[in-house]
Write a structure and sequence with these properties.
single chain, alpha+beta, OB fold (Dihydrolipoamide Acetyltransferase, E2P), five-stranded mixed β-barrel, 7 strands, elongated
Length: 125
Amino acid sequence: MLLRQERLAFYLLVAVAVGIILASLGLEGIDKGILAKDFCQTETDGTLVRLEGVIDELDWTETGGHLNIRLAGTPVFLPSNVADKLSIRKGDRVLIYGIIQTYRGEKEILVQEAKDVKVIEEGGY
């Protein structure tokens, strides 16, 4: 049988665990647009950003099935698990959300989920 202090500690732990679970579920439903900043070359790695523009270039990597695009002159990397779920073409106007990372000395945007790429207007050529 638990002592009074042990019961209190147990109930507090359960309350904290439930609170963390509810907060996690609530944050999952938040639109990234609320939290994302407009892309800027001066933003630091790890910053959540958004960028809208026309796809200038679209190239598949030689290995891994990843997709590199250039959106309004900015490099964007889509891992294979994201790229496989998308149907985008050069010339499409898209809105993307992603995390800034530096690759080979150049800032790029890493897209983490297919839902973070929204085709605004098809214009592929």
